[in-house]
Amino acid sequence: GFRFEFEVPGIEQKNIDISVEDGILSVTGERISERKDEDRIRTERRYGKFVRSFRLPESADTDKVAAKLKNGILMIEIPKREETKPRKIKVKVS
């Protein structure tokens, strides 16, 4: 299958959106600053929205996408479709 991992520390599950449309996996998220300190001199964290999009191979089974958020890591797994096997057709003699 296919596995995607994103570092999303400080982003809540409700602020992450995952979609698959026309073979494109899109991940959107937003880190919202809860602090409104006017006296802050420096911040090491970035706030705001992000969007990442990836074209999936045709073998990806987009009906079975699974996502999990754990310890600031978003993991998305997409299994491969079962390959369609060639079908043999018998010819009948009449």
What can you see in these coordinates?
With 94 residues, the chain is mostly beta strands. The strands form two sheets. A three-stranded antiparallel β-sheet has the order 1-6-5, with no helix packed on it. The protein has strands spanning 2-7, 16-21, 24-31, 48-55, 66-70, 73-78. The model has no long low-confidence stretch (mean pLDDT 87). It is built from no helices and six strands.
What's the topology here?
Blueprint: E1 2-7, E2 16-21, E3 24-31, E4 48-55, E5 66-70, E6 73-78
Antiparallel strand pairs: 1-6, 2-3, 3-4, 5-6
Largest sheet: 3 strands, antiparallel
> Helical percent range?
under 10%
Compute the CA-based radius of gyration.
21 Å
Assembly of the depicted chains? single chain
Give, in order, the helices and strands: EEEEEE
- List low-confidence stretches: none
Number of strands: 6
Number of helices: 0
Structural class: mainly beta
First and last CA, distance: 47 Å
Average pLDDT works out at 87
Our estimate of the beta-strand percent is 35-45%
- Strand line-up across the major sheet: 1-6-5
Shape: rod-shaped
Short description:
This protein is mainly β.
